Amino acid sequence: MEPLSIRLQLAPRQKRGAETGPNPTDRGKKGSKHHLVTDRKGRPLVVLLSAANVHDKKKDLPLFDAILPVRTGRRGRPRNRPKKAHGDKGYDFADIRSGLRARRITPRIAQRGIESSQRLGRHRWVVERTLGWLHNMKRLRMREERRADLHLALLQLGCSVILFRELARRL
């Protein structure tokens, strides 16, 4: 399986409801985060939703647990986890690294204070582009749904639209 990239994006929210919390970067307004895992071509594999005040490291390992196995046409048990995972310095925690290693995933995460994030740019732009595609859909850019399950459903529908466009381009 191809290496994956992880990234999240904040979706501001005006109303209250589940999976919202004060956004520390936006004057404490209520907001949500979109956690996203893509393959190296930018195709979304897993998307999760959380409140804006939930730390990234709490949702990182559940993202990798949610990846479904991919049928490759080869015999044997399919590999349902990637070989490598790329992440920025926000994911540089010992428990995340050990959790990825326990799942037999090689962590490629820039270390805080030691390594520059510049080398990750060639992997991160793919996720940023996918988040841009998602946020071009009006209902995902600014969260207006009070219920978290509705917003998550719209987020998954947006990922399905991206995958459909990829398939349509190949045909």
From TrEMBL:
Region (Disordered): 1-37
GO BP terms in the entry: DNA transposition
One annotated GO molecular function: transposase activity
Domain Transposase IS4-like: 15-158
InterPro entries cross-referenced by the UniProt entry: Transposase_11 (IPR002559)
Pfam assignment, any one: DDE_Tnp_1
Protein name in the entry: IS5 family transposase
Source organism (scientific name): Pyxidicoccus fallax
